[in-house]
Amino acid sequence: MAKSKFEYVRSFETDDTCLRNCYIVVRLDGRNFHKFAEQHQFAKPNDDRALGLMSRSARSVMEELEDITIAYGQSDEFSFVFKRTTTWFKRRASKLMTHVASQFSSSYVFYWKEFFGEQPLLYPPGFDGRVVLYPTNRNLRDYLSWRQADCHINNLYNTVFWTLIQKGGLSTTQAENRLKGTLASEKNEILFSEFDINYNNESAVHRKGTTLIWEKRNETVSKRIKRPNEEEQQVPVTRSRKKVEAYHCDIIGDQFWEEHPDVLEDDT
Ligand code: DGT
Ligand code: MG
Ligand code: MG
Ligand code: MG
Ligand code: MG
């Protein structure tokens, strides 16, 4: 096909191919969710409808896009990890990131009703995205550990903060002052000695966030089979299917990774 004289503008596009052999992480974060949470009356500190919708949208991203092996989410953010050998969209960062962000955003709106029922969505939410490359399994695990540690630090703080207000009758300023400079152990102690709350017994979704991975599950269905010279029969047929499974467990230690050795590829 003959080229038009306008064709040269294509050469203005910059190359954003992600370095080979690296895990490609796309992290999304809700835009101005401080306001979004207020306007939609999210429960404080954790709204299970909102967290459920985030995970549902992340599941849709994993099911619709290729080569995401693990995703981790907490609060208004979700990280998606493309396997290090992916060739999807020629590893172009902008393509990968925008597909993740748009699939996630449209799913968030599409599934809103499943989680919020008749409560209306007041305006279209947005999510920012960024791409980060991690060359080694250690780097990738440290990245995910960083996000889970962030989840823990924020959730412990928010749990004590809102308990002081909701159960202790403090104002937000008083609660802030009470917590200024306190260590994690002191926050745990406030919850335990003043409110009879053992932080470790709080919901795992809130303490650990949500990890999504692909797992093989055996699925048994009943099939009608007719063999020659025999009556038609119902027989159980088992086949192995890949499904996205959710975990709310520690992913900082080794146990999760030992139990799911297929998530990471070998470093060598
Ligand atoms: P950004 O990301 O810079 O556009 O601004 P924000 O406001 O989204 O800030 P960010 O992402 O650092 O913090 C997340 C906000 O979302 C934070 O203000 C608390 C709110 N949020 C997230 N999950 C929940 C929830 O389950 N309940 C409530 N009440 N708020 C939540
Ligand atoms: Mg922010
Ligand atoms: Mg945000
Ligand atoms: Mg955030
Ligand atoms: Mg197109």
Bound ligands: 2'-deoxyguanosine-5'-triphosphate, magnesium ion
Query: Largest sheet at a glance?
Result: 6 strands, antiparallel
Order of helices and strands: EHHEEHHEHHHHEEH
In CATH, the architecture of the domain at 17-145 and 203-208 is 2-Layer Sandwich
Oligomer description? single chain
DSSP, total strands: 6
Can you give keywords for this protein?
alpha+beta; Alpha-Beta Plaits; six-stranded antiparallel beta sheet; binds 2'-deoxyguanosine-5'-triphosphate; binds magnesium ion
Task: Give a written overview of the molecule.
With 268 residues, this protein is of the alpha+beta class. It has 9 helices and 6 strands, in the order E-H-H-E-E-H-H-E-H-H-H-H-E-E-H. The protein has a domain of 135 residues: Alpha-Beta Plaits (2-Layer Sandwich). Helices cover 40% and strands 22% of the residues. The chain has a 6-stranded antiparallel β-sheet with strand order 4-1-3-2-5-6, with helices on both faces. Helix 2 crosses helix 3, helix 5 packs across helix 6 and helix 5 packs parallel to helix 7. It is globular, with a radius of gyration of 23 Å. The protein binds 2'-deoxyguanosine-5'-triphosphate and magnesium ion (4 copies). 2'-deoxyguanosine-5'-triphosphate binds next to strand 1, helix 1 and helix 2. The site of 2'-deoxyguanosine-5'-triphosphate has 17 residues, from strand 1, helix 1 and helix 2.
